[in-house]
Amino acid sequence: MVLSSEVFSALADPTRRFVVETLAARGDATATELAAELPVTRQAVTKHLAALGEAGLVDAHRSGRETRYRLTPAPLGDAVSWLEEVSGKWDERLAALQRHLGETSSESTP
Amino acid sequence: MVLSSEVFSALADPTRRFVVETLAARGDATATELAAELPVTRQAVTKHLAALGEAGLVDAHRSGRETRYRLTPAPLGDAVSWLEEVSGKWDERLAALQRHLGETSSESTP
DNA sequence: CCTTCGTGCAACTATTCGGTTGCAGATACT
DNA sequence: AGTATCTGCAACCGAATAGTTGCACGAAGG
Questions:
Q1: pTM of this prediction?
Q2: Number of domains into which chain A is organized
Q3: Which of B1, B78, B93 to mutate to test the interface with A (most CBs of A within 10 A)?
């Protein structure tokens, strides 16, 4: 179970999550457009977009003098897989414990 | 869609993810036990466990002179919800775009 | 009682990170 | 052509973070 660490790191920052949400809703945006809705400068947003790009969550398309960023949500699925695998292991461990308690319910109860 | 930022932050660190995986598989562990399987000191693991605790992913139970940590996986579900909501929005935006392209396929294409 | 084991707390360090300012290069508009 | 936008790159700064070492304290066992 070896997951790209960058996905969770990318999603750890609130600004970056806002960018992801906005891209999911609008489909498209430039760094300047995103910065207009955020309390940070355009360059900060550019850095965040670079981080998201390294995580494979976003890719850039330059048309003319503006660069539009788009969501590539595949890594989100990887993250979900990891989370569900962990949750699953935990649940089955709990179930095993319940079963064990049932089997030994007639034994000593310290 | 306001998610506790701490969940993704907690999961951003590889050591912390290893701890979560281990706790999911074993159900129980002390900081010293976890540190034995990691290239860091016990104190580092304790700090990581504190971070996971702040994110609500772990809670501590002291019995005698040892403190055992256990997984509390509820926040993982919150993270999955957020991820699926974003993915969902993206998918429905894609579908809307497809529909739009279908409707306007006979119109002018500037 | 004394030793040992496990833990918790504090101080300190190096690196990473989010953010800024400043500037140069390319593209559109009149 | 000349000007106005939009972008990208680099340097710099403060705060957070992952890690360490050192020490003191409570619980078990001889």
A1: 0.90
A2: 1
A3: B93
